[in-house]
């Protein structure tokens, strides 16, 4: 073939169809990579999260509220307990508890002021997230908000507390104050930065300390308990002695009071006896004087004329009058009676003279 003749040109494909097979492959590759990405993302999630993403109908349990993310963005929608609908794959849902819950923080190591390492095995924090602050709290700190404001905060506060107190103080002296101090510290920061979190109480278990130190503390506690028992026994003894002395003093006072009452009664009886004797003596003297005066008066009255008058009066007062020849012998002649009375008056006069 002559080299000067023009070379036949190889037919070229149409310009518009160049690369058409490459574009189709790129599209297939993109779809394949998308499926791989979705598969990898699903493999990295828990089964419950996968079911959550695939489900349309979901249930919010009692004591919780439903919170939703769409494309990774937290939504303002908050649902109450019950059944609700969402878009699968697009909307993600999480239940958030709004009632009381207890978070247990375990294994908290800390060093005391003297450099001794101790460990708090468990600290329980009773807390609650208020429903009105769910969106703001999750927006700022995520669903695991308690990791920031309870778990991490407890570790920090316990270490701060231990570093400023000795082992004696942490383990014995101020142990009963740790719970209140932790509650105040947690609530103070939550009120400032996460006002929706309310700390109800903090319960702290006894920390674990080195065995040798614990043995020393036990011995110290035994000695202290022994001293306390001895002190209580001494106090009881003193109280018993004091009570006995008090009872003895009371008995002595009561006895003295009774003796004084008896002596007072005796003196009163003596006075009454003296009064009685004086009164009886006075009555006897009065009676003697009266009898004496009556005797003197009778002496003056014992005259024949007076006796005769009395005899006549007695006869006049007699209600019986006798008539007839014979008169009873009791009625005597007045002259005989007069002579008798005169003789009687002389005899009485003679007796008085002889006695004088």
Largest sheet, strands/sense/barrel: 3 strands, antiparallel
Number of strands: 8
Task: Please report the number of helical segments.
Answer: 9
**What does the overall shape look like?**
rod-shaped
Would you tell me the structural class of the helices and strands?
Answer: alpha+beta
**Helix and strand pattern:** HHEEEEEEEHHHHEHHH
Membrane topology: Single-pass type II membrane protein
Subcellular location: Endoplasmic reticulum membrane
Domain Band: 55-221
Region (Disordered): 1-20
Question: Please, could you describe this protein's structure?
Answer:
- The chain has 356 residues and is of the alpha+beta class.
- Helix content is 59%, strand content 17%.
- The protein contains 9 helices and 8 strands.
- Strands 3-2-5 form a 3-stranded antiparallel β-sheet, with helices on one face.
- The radius of gyration is 66 Å and the shape is rod-shaped.
- It starts with 19 loop residues before the first helix and ends with a helix.
- Residues 1-21 have low confidence and may be disordered.
Descriptors for this entry?
356 residues, alpha+beta, three-stranded antiparallel β-sheet, rod-shaped, disordered N terminus, ubiquitin protein ligase binding, glycoprotein, Band_7/SPFH_dom_sf, signal-anchor
What order do the helices and strands come in, and which of them pair?
Blueprint: H1 20-43, H2 47-54, E1 57-60, E2 64-70, E3 73-79, E4 82-85, E5 91-97, E6 101-111, E7 117-129, H3 134-141, H4 145-163, H5 167-173, H6 175-193, E8 197-204, H7 211-301, H8 304-316, H9 334-355
Antiparallel strand pairs: 1-4, 2-3, 2-5, 6-7, 7-8
Helix pairs in contact: 4-6
